[in-house]
Design goal:
Layout lengths: L9 H11 L3 E2 L1 E6 L5 E6 L2 E6 L2 E8 L7 H9 L1 E6 L5 H6 L10 H4 L4 E2 L8 E2 L4 E12 L8 E13 L12 H4 L2 E3 L5 E3 L10
Family: Belongs to the flavoredoxin family.
Protein name: Flavin reductase family protein
InterPro entries: Flavin_Rdtase-like_dom (IPR002563), Split_barrel_FMN-bd (IPR012349)
């Protein structure tokens, strides 16, 4: 079957895309408001953009033409932290996806421990094994939307934190101790399954 996105309902487009573009890494984004309130929320529209210099991106939906707290905070402070999601914190990550008042913190809601960053103001999640401190370099609001669209946020990594237990020699990552979790569709997530290698020709 073929589909013209201009002729589909938004819910159908969402299901087709999130069900087929998988698995998606999860960017667990911590930010801080101008009033000093810590915010934490997961985004599966997330990935790295490059390593020279290192940049990441995440995209946040704007349902009903309204910004999420994360976006408001990042646009105001120009900073955020990416906390990578692993099997041992996936339930708490899911808890932080709830909508709560802007003057409350998801760290408290999910019983997570905020710890200071080195170069940016937003806190890191102590329970996460990997953190990337980021400074905002660019943002772009998708055009032609009908219900609010989304905003793409690009950040430059200015500091990286890795738990010793996930590191191997020569800066390689130990997947057996890292145990990352990725997003599928609906309520589904995935763990690392069978791994195979193909050498580049």
């Amino acid at each position: 079957m073929t589909f013209d996105p201009n002729e589909l309902e938004a819910s159908a487009i969402y299901k087709l895309l999130t069900g087929s573009i998988i698995p998606r890494p999860i960017g667990w984004i911590s930010s801080i408001s101008e009033d000093g309130i810590n915010n934490l929320a997961p985004f599966s529209y997330f990935n790295m953009l490059g390593d020279d210099p290192p940049h990441v991106m995440f995209s946040t939906r704007r349902d009903n033409n309204k910004n999420k707290d994360t976006l408001n905070n990042v646009l105001a402070t120009k900073q955020f932290v990416v906390n990578m999601v692993t099997e041992d914190v996936v339930e708490q990550m899911n808890t932080t996806s709830q909508s709560i008042p802007a003057d409350e913190s998801e760290f408290d809601l999910a019983n997570l421990t905020p710890i200071p960053s080195i170069k940016v103001k937003p806190m890191r999640v102590k329970e996460s094994k990997i953190h990337f401190e980021c400074e905002l370099v660019h943002h772009y609001f998708l055009e032609g939307h009908q219900q609010g669209g989304a905003c793409v946020v690009i950040g430059r990594i200015v500091m990286m934190h890795f738990d010793d237990q996930v590191l191997l020699e020569d800066y390689k990552i130990n997947l057996e101790t890292y145990k990352p979790v990725s997003r599928l569709a609906g309520s589904n997530y995935s763990k690392i399954g069978e791994i195979f290698s193909i050498k580049r020709s």
